[in-house]
Amino acid sequence: MNKVSGSAAEAVADIPDGASLAVGGFGLSGVPDVLIGALLKQEAAGLEVVSNNCGVDGRGLGVLLAAGRIARVTGSYVGENKEFARQYLSGELEVELTPQGTLAERLRAGGAGIPAFYTPAGVGTQVAEGGLPWRYAPGGSVAVASPPKEIRDFSGRPYLLEHGITTDFALVRAWRGDRHGNLVFRRAAANFNPLAAMAGRITIAEVEELVEPGELAPDDVHLPGIYVQRIVELTPEQAADKRIEKRTVSI
């Protein structure tokens, strides 16, 4: 039951080329930076990433992107990452843009064993009708476009079919965790982290504070350890290293 790995490098050592990864975080909040850094050094390539966004230039998933390790992204936001936009528009990267709530539910559904569900989000748009550019050709034409999705009426309202997402691995960051893999997320870090953790067949969590089993009150646990296979304890310096994507101050 002791799921603690000796290091982040040890925890990600068996992630192969071409693996699919669900990665927690929103902007730079709750991003598993230490695991991402270890994966960068591990040199796995051709990765297929499912995450709300792909970090920023030089931070989060942006470091894997800049190193050319990511082949495909399923997400909802290109954001402030100029390299992400450049690779997408130049045809170097395949990108499946998905409504944010739909992405969250696809991850949750995959983790819960639900193969597909119907949602009104995207009805009447290219999300439903198909034709969204997934990959551009070098000349700027669309090389791969999204397919149309099944639409069905329920009580006179149209809904489209979306499929649950499961991945080979998941990388997440938690505030507290115990050796059994039970996790607690704090404030904004409780964004896509629980959902990404559910979707991964092998979930690796970096935790800011590691406690012994029984120290976490059952009512405080956000994600039970059944979803987590490996735990990495962060150093105090690593736990305190939290960047702000956009700093706003008032005078």
Given helix and strand content, the structural type is alpha/beta
- Shape, please? globular
CATH topology: Glutaconate Coenzyme A-transferase
Number of strands: 13
Mean pLDDT: 94
Gyration radius, rounded: 18 Å
User: Low-confidence segments, ≥5 residues, pLDDT <50?
Assistant: none
Termini distance? 52 Å
- Contiguous helical run count: 8
Give the class-level CATH name. Answer: Alpha Beta
In CATH, the homologous superfamily goes by the name: Glutaconate Coenzyme A-transferase
Pfam families: CoA_trans
Organism: Streptomyces atroolivaceus
GO molecular function: transferase activity
Protein name: CoA transferase subunit A
Explained architecture:
Keywords: Transferase. GO terms for molecular function: transferase activity. Belongs to the 3-oxoacid CoA-transferase subunit A family. The chain is α/β, with parallel strands linked by helices and 251 residues long. It has one domain: 3-Layer(aba) Sandwich (Glutaconate Coenzyme A-transferase). Helix content is 23%, strand content 28%. Helix 4 links the parallel strand 3 (70-75) and strand 4 (94-97). Helix 5 (100-112) packs across helix 7.
